[in-house]
Amino acid sequence: MKRLLVLLIITVGFSSCGEYQKVLKEKEISPKYEMAKQLYEQGLETGKNRYFRKAIRLFDQILPQYKGKPAGETVSYMNANAHYLVGDYFLSGYLMERFTKSYPNSEKVEEAFFKSAESFYKVSPVYSKDQEDTYKALNKLQFYINTYPDGEYFIAANDMIQELSQKIERKFYEIAKQYHHTERYKAAIQSFDNFTLKFPGSKLREQALFYKFESAYILAINSVSYLVPERLAEALLYYEDFMKYYGDTESEFLEQAKTYAQDIEQRTNTQIEL
């Protein structure tokens, strides 16, 4: 009985594969549509990507013929969603966006706006790489929130915006810190200054203020003599800015900042005496 059952499963499998191959070669689009829809629904029911991938091959063949037809909206949505569900986010982002433009009155348009944005969110790279897709995702997610303030996906979209915004912050911060670590102190000061202006509420603000001060301090004490007084005074202003926000905290940078400030005071007093 077990052997008969295995043979039956294999036979049915070969039969369905043969039918699929036959429909792929069909010239008529109607059988392709019916099978693609059936495979798409099987994918939804089982969660198995192989059904979606087979459906996508058929959708690719029939999409142009359904453009402008009543079923075109259904075909376009199923194709875009199949790509989304198998994790082909580069393409699903584009296809969902195209769907919203082609069928702006569709009942699926809100979902498509969100999934287009989410697709770009999914392909957003780590902070150390180029953030073009991150900015695209942010723009699309913000558009969704502005368009659907009471939308089904509002909370999810807002959470994604927060996460991506923190990634952009980290990108800006690491660029400034890299200038600091490579002893390009003028560039570091400018970059940390830009960072604190652009992201005033950042969790990295403490570090940014300290490293801006440290960059200014090191730049000052290593400058030619006639530039030292001016640069020490500038560094002291950055110290005061750091202390304004973190002087009464348990900042890990507090003792080092005070040490630098004492040295600035000693150097300044020495110059005055001279």
Distance between the termini: 105 Å
The percent range for strand residues is: under 5%
- Count all strands and give the number: 0
Helical content, roughly? over 70%
Major sheet size, sense and barrel closure: none
Cα gyration radius (Å): 30 Å
Task: Provide the structure class.
Answer: mainly alpha
- Number of separate helices: 12
Q: Helices and strands, in N-to-C order?
A: HHHHHHHHHHHH
Which parts are unreliable, with pLDDT below 50 for 5 consecutive residues or more?
A: 4-14
Overall mean pLDDT stands at 92
Shape: rod-shaped
Oligomer status: single chain
Observed structural traits:
274 residues, mainly alpha
Can you tell me about this structure?
Residues 36-223 form the Outer membrane lipoprotein BamD-like domain. Keywords: Cell outer membrane, Membrane, Signal. This is Outer membrane protein assembly factor BamD. With 274 residues, the chain is mainly α. The protein has a domain at 183-274. The chain has twelve helices and no strands. It has helices at residues 2-24, 29-46, 49-66, 72-85, 89-102, 109-123, 132-147, 154-181, 185-198, 205-221, 228-246, 254-273. Helix 2 runs antiparallel to helix 3 and helix 4 packs antiparallel against helix 5 (89-102). The protein is rod-shaped and about 95 Å long.
